[in-house]
Each structure stands twice: as structure tokens, then as C-alpha cells.
Amino acid sequence: MQTQIEIHAEPLNIQQCIDWVMSPDSGGIDVFIGTVRNATKGKTVLKLEFEAYNKMAISEINKITKQAFKQWPVQKVLVHHRTGTLQVGEIPVIIAVSAAHRDAAFEACRYIIDTLKQTVPIWKKEFFEDGEVWVAAHP
Amino acid sequence: MQTQIEIHAEPLNIQQCIDWVMSPDSGGIDVFIGTVRNATKGKTVLKLEFEAYNKMAISEINKITKQAFKQWPVQKVLVHHRTGTLQVGEIPVIIAVSAAHRDAAFEACRYIIDTLKQTVPIWKKEFFEDGEVWVAAHP
Amino acid sequence: MEINILAFGIAKDIFGVSSISVEVSEQGNIATLKALLEERYPKLKQLASYMVAVNNEYAEDKLIITERDEVAIIPPVSGG
Amino acid sequence: MEINILAFGIAKDIFGVSSISVEVSEQGNIATLKALLEERYPKLKQLASYMVAVNNEYAEDKLIITERDEVAIIPPVSGG
């Protein structure tokens, strides 16, 4: 039962994340990698900016990973989130979960990204050709 | 809608697999990585051997990925399976799926590994201290 | 008492700065604070929703604020 | 007619080789072949199950085999 949580402005390293969750007693790893898409609702996206309330975000992610360990027999859980300006194709988030059996890895990984998007104080601004908008801010 | 299927005896390369499925119009990638576990049902595993009926295995995996494209709006699907002798911690299988939205990526990835384990002609022999056994061969 | 308030995301745009100071009565709670802020920054009311965090935890309306607390405005999150 | 049969996994261990030849009557189908093989290799009947593939496709019992077909014994799979 080990957790690694990081929020920083450096590019995320997929291989390092996966290496960290691997272990001889795990049989399966599920990894979710978010990537910056070139369009949203049909509008071209130029870039994204992510801002985090770091201390609280770490604390909220920690709650989520603790809950994942309670709900599923998982072995190692990693959540890395990037902040700052990201271009199309870059990676804002990596979640990796190892477990003896794949069910737990898939379900915990899915739970973590779904809950992260609901509760963790990180904000995304989308930049279009004709302006910019904080995602989800307005009804 | 692109697919890459490979079965070979060389070590699988996680980073290459993920790079291949990434694309500017995808927003999420789900990756499943199988790893050789050090024990099965409480018995220490020394190593595994994988054998494949290559041509038919490729054809069966192709059926699975086609079905995934039918069922979910996914963009790129990759399945790499290794054969030969694998030590504990090594990687027999990588499945990577990119999609505009994460639901499709998670569900298709899960479907592909679950179905691969049921229908694709690949066999695994487990080596223990006191003998060896073809997995699932006997009731 | 003087309460320092951190702002993130669109809240920072609405305040125009990343932190502001507001005068809250002793025994003032989160509801008091929200009413004060919405009066001064009516655009807060146009948000889909917003929360207040105290010492890195989401706070309920009835929580009493003290001068030593770290208070932050949390507009709708959109990480991931 | 002479049918060449590929064997994988535990079927290879049961046959002792990775491919065998069996004499099947003209118009013989998969069921005929299975009966022949189970008589010669009774251990096949102890498997959890096994399938026959013809030209890289799982074949039903009633499929007629021809000399040009690629036939393989598929014991329970365990990839992944």
C-alpha cells in the first residue's frame, strides 16, 4: 500500500510513473493518461493553462487514493498532475494503479480520475482563437 | 480508426506503445500492462513461458479490436503480446486505447483484455519450484 | 477581524488579484463571508457554484472563521 | 486422406510433438477428427476443454475437413 502524489509544472514522465507502480507481486497495471485535445465542442483549442491550489489539491488527492485502497485490493497508486501552460498533445495527468488482479486496477484507476475531476482544486483555462475560458466556471 | 497488433519474443516497450496511440484529437488514453506476478494461489512462480499460434492469434485479436471500434468511439488501439520465457516483473501484454473521452478508452481497454484472455490462442506455462503447469488446461 | 482570502481560477479574475483582505465580524461564519464577497463581487453569483476552503478543507456554511485560518475561494474545479 | 494437425500448449505435450498426421475419411468432419484423436490420445479428454481451428478460425463439430486445410488443436487459452 504505497502512494505517490505530485503536482508540478515539469513535463510528466510516463515511463517513470509506470516503473514506480510496478512490483513483483502485481499482475496488472492500469494507467490513465490525460492528453490535451486539439478541440472542445468543435472549437479549436490552442493551449491550456492549469492552476492548482497545491497544498489542498495534494490533500484532496490523498483522500481519494486512501479511499481507493479501502475499496479495492490495489498495491501501488500514483497520481501526477501538471500545472502551467500545456500545448496540444501534452499530458496534464497520469494515474497509475498496480494490483494482483486487473479488476481492482481498472476500477480504482477509473474511480481516481473520476473523483479527481470532481473534488480536487485544480482549474483549467482553454485558449481559443477568439478568447479564453475557465472550464466549468459558468452554468 | 487505427490498429497496431504485434506478437513477438522481444521485450515490450511501454513508451513506444503509448506514443503510438497518442494523437492531437484524443483527450484520454487507457493502458493495461500485464506483469508476471511472483506467486499464483500462494505458490512461488519462478518464470512463465508464453506460446502463441501466431497467425490465428493476430486474427483473433483483430476481431476483438474491430468489435471495440464498433462498440466505442475510440481512436487508436494497440495490442502487443510477448512470447517466450518471461521472468517475474516482465511484461507479457500491453493494451493501449486512445479516445476523445475517457469513458470509451477505459471500457474498450477493459473489453479487449477480458476478451483476449478468453479467445486468443496464446498459452502460458507456470514454472514452480516443484514442477510446471499449463494454466487453465485442466478443470 | 481581518481575513485574508486566496483566490484561484476564475475567482482570481473576478477579484483581479490572487488574494484579498475582508473585514469579517467576530464569530462570522462561511455564510457571512460569502454574503460579504457576493456584495462586493456580484460576478461570484454568476458562477455555476463555488466553495470556500478553510485550512485546505471544504467548509460548510456554518463554520466559524478565525484570523489564523487559511481561507480560499474554490470555483468549479476542472482538473484532469 | 492425410490431415496434418498443429498442436500448441498442453496439446503439444500430449502429442509429444508440435504436429502430427492422422488419416481421416473423405467427408470427415471435426467431430470425426476429435473422436480419432481422443482414441489415440486419451489425455485430450482430461482437458477442461479444447477446440479445433481450421484455417485460423475456431471450427464447429460439423465442419468438413479437406486436405488443404490448416488444422490446429487449441487447448484452453491462457494469454494476457
TrEMBL record, chains A, B:
Involved pathway(s): Cofactor biosynthesis; molybdopterin biosynthesis
Keywords recorded for this protein, A-Z: Molybdenum cofactor biosynthesis
Enzyme class at the top of the EC tree: transferase
Cited InterPro entries: MoaE_sf, Mopterin_biosynth_MoaE
- Taxonomically, which superkingdom? Bacteria
Q: Which reaction does it catalyse?
A: 2 [molybdopterin-synthase sulfur-carrier protein]-C-terminal-Gly-aminoethanethioate + cyclic pyranopterin phosphate + H2O = molybdopterin + 2 [molybdopterin-synthase sulfur-carrier protein]-C-terminal Gly-Gly + 2 H(+)
**What EC number(s) does its UniProt record assign?**
2.8.1.12
Describe, as the record does, how this protein assembles with itself and its partners: Heterotetramer of 2 MoaD subunits and 2 MoaE subunits. Also stable as homodimer. The enzyme changes between these two forms during catalysis.
Please state which protein family the record places this protein in.
Belongs to the MoaE family.
Identify the PANTHER family for this entry.
MOLYBDOPTERIN SYNTHASE RELATED (PTHR23404)
The entry's protein name is Molybdopterin synthase catalytic subunit
TrEMBL record, chains C, D:
Source taxon at top rank = Bacteria
Annotated InterPro entries = Beta-grasp_dom_sf (IPR012675), MOCS2A (IPR044672), Mopterin_synth/thiamin_S_b (IPR016155), ThiS/MoaD-like (IPR003749)
Keywords from the named record = Nucleotide-binding
Pfam families annotated for this entry?
ThiS (PF02597)
Q: Which residues form a coiled coil?
A: none
Gene3D superfamilies annotated for this entry? 3.10.20.30
UniProt record similarity statement: Belongs to the MoaD family.
Protein name (database record): Molybdopterin synthase sulfur carrier subunit
Q: The organism's lineage?
A: Bacteria, Pseudomonadati, Bacteroidota, Sphingobacteriia, Sphingobacteriales
